[in-house]
Structures are given as structure tokens and as C-alpha cells.
Amino acid sequence: MLAAVSMWLVSVAVVLLLTETSSGQSFRSDAEILAYLNAVDRECMIWSCRNAINRVDPGGNLDLNCSIIGVVWSYTWQFKGREIASYVGETTTVIDENRYEVSVTPHELDRIRYYSYWRDVRFTIKRASHPGDSGVYNFTISHFRGDSQKMNIYVDLAGATR
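-> C-alpha cells emitted (162 positions)
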């Protein structure tokens, strides 16, 4: 009987956690991130990513920002089917450092603490121009056991709405 009650309490806790996080609320700890990933049977996932970017002022820098949670072994950025930046293990590679820049920082929990399992990834297109930099950018993350997720980000530097 005690085991059944314990399992029921765990189920209720997972449902509450899933309800809270899927409604846009933040995680309060790394333990909540790991519990969420366990509940959805994932090692890692793209938590947030703006998937369409319109901009009227070509020529300045353009940032594509995504948040990732879990244990991410590698990620890649692609544009028009060509890999333009990647991270594997501890090594980040950017194909053209004069055009692109990548930064990965721990997500801030509060002003003095940071998460270990939540990272913010910023991909910068330097001197973004129209129409050369408009198109679909692909951001893919992977765990070394094979779990992966891909996000398409649509960039339109002409300023047209989608």
C-alpha cells in the first residue's frame, strides 16, 4: 500500500511539473530540469528558440538565440544546407569567424546563481545583409546516446511579415 501511495505522489509531482513548465514557467533548479527531462524521456532538448526573425535594417549584427536544457554533447548551425558552426565535446568551430560568432552561457537563475543544465546559445551573423543572409537557419542539438532535436529559424532581412 505504501509503495502505491509513493508512486501516486511521484506521478502527481511529475504532472504538476509538466503542467508548470509547459505553461511557460521557469525551472527553479537543476533538479527540476532533470526531473522534467526524465518525465518526457529526453536527454536534452531545445527549450526555447525564436523561430521567425524579421528585420528592416540590414547591415547590423543579427542574433539568433536559443535555450537548451539537459546534457548536450553537440550542436550545429546550418544555413542553406551548409554547416556554419558546430560544437562537439569541448570544441566550438565557426566556419567563417569574420561573418559568424557563437557564444554559450549558463542560464541565469537569479543575479548570483546559474543553472548547470540550462544554457543560452547565441549565434551572431555579423553585418547581416539582404538578401544574402535571409533564409532558413537550422539549429540541431544532440546527446551522445543519440537523442537529438532540430529547430528551423526563418530569417527575413527584407522586413516582410510572415
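DSSP finds two helices and ten strands in the chain.
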